[in-house]
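Let's practice the habit of predicting before peeking. Look at the sequence and jot down your guess about where helices and strands might fall. Then scroll down.
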Amino acid sequence: MDNHLSEISVQHLKNRLEGGEEIFLLDVREPYEFNIANLNGYLLPLGQLQTKFDELDPSREIVVYCHHGNRSAFAVDFLKNRGFERVLNLAGGIDQWSREVDSKVPRY
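Done guessing? Here is the structure:
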């Protein structure tokens, strides 16, 4: 996978969301992590993605995130291999979001 072509920085995502763009946020972490900190994304843990990816709309732009970006990178690959064309990994995950965009999002 050529990661840099399938990634979006937290700052770029923040700017796009603030600009009113319709971006579907997909959180592939576990429920306990979601309860600690989240970006109000749709929770679909990575372990359930293979059986539930049909819940997602392939026509929408999707930004996938996890804690640091590793699980979400795997999820992006998985979705791209199933025909999702508008899917990006949030570089650095929710941890990077907390450090650079919104310090009120708890780090763990």
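How did you do? The first strand starts at residue 7 and ends at 8.
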